[in-house]
Amino acid sequence: MLNLYFNDETETIDKGNEKKISDLLIYAAEAEGLSGEAEISITFMTDAEIQEINEQYRGINKPTDVISFALEELTEDEIVIVVEEGMPKVLGDILISVETARRQAHDYGHDFDREIGFLALHGLLHLLGYDHQTPEEETEMFGRQKEILESFGLRR
Fold first, then answer.
1. Can you give the pLDDT of all 156 residues of the chain as single tens digits?
2. Burial of 58 (C-beta count, 10 Å sphere; 0-12/13-18/19+)
3. Which of the listed residues 10, 24, 32, 74 has the most CB atoms within 10 Å of its CB?
4. Range of the structural domain that residue 107 is part of
């Protein structure tokens, strides 16, 4: 079972948005074969807030739409986190800029629910180990996103 914890720093996301995202991510986790108890936090923020994080962690001084921090992804000098039996596996954090999501929904010609769902799914796939650093990885990840969104019924 996937447990999601929402934090809306913008105070603009309603319970209906959270429910749709929750349903999509639980569906995606099942489609990806995620088993056992797992946790993810999802934070909705402004462009200014996500820009600070983007600069601090990625060295890019501009807002972005979504950033994921996978807790199981090791960097230099980190130690492996061992999950005790019976405890949920904490996959990580997904940060979404609501302002960018609204702009992109308008630019791409679909509704906000589709865009915010796409961004949350994109973040989840990163937490599950997908990436898009190479053309091959991008094809795999974006293809999987499309499959999940379409089978879930969240189309453009």
1. 899 999 999 999 999 999 999 999 999 999 999 988 999 999 999 999 999 999 999 999 999 999 999 986 444 554 444 555 666 788 999 999 999 999 999 999 999 999 999 999 999 999 999 999 999 999 999 999 999 999 999 877
2. exposed
3. 24
4. 2-152
- What is the tally of structural domains in the chain? 1
The structure's pTM equals 0.90
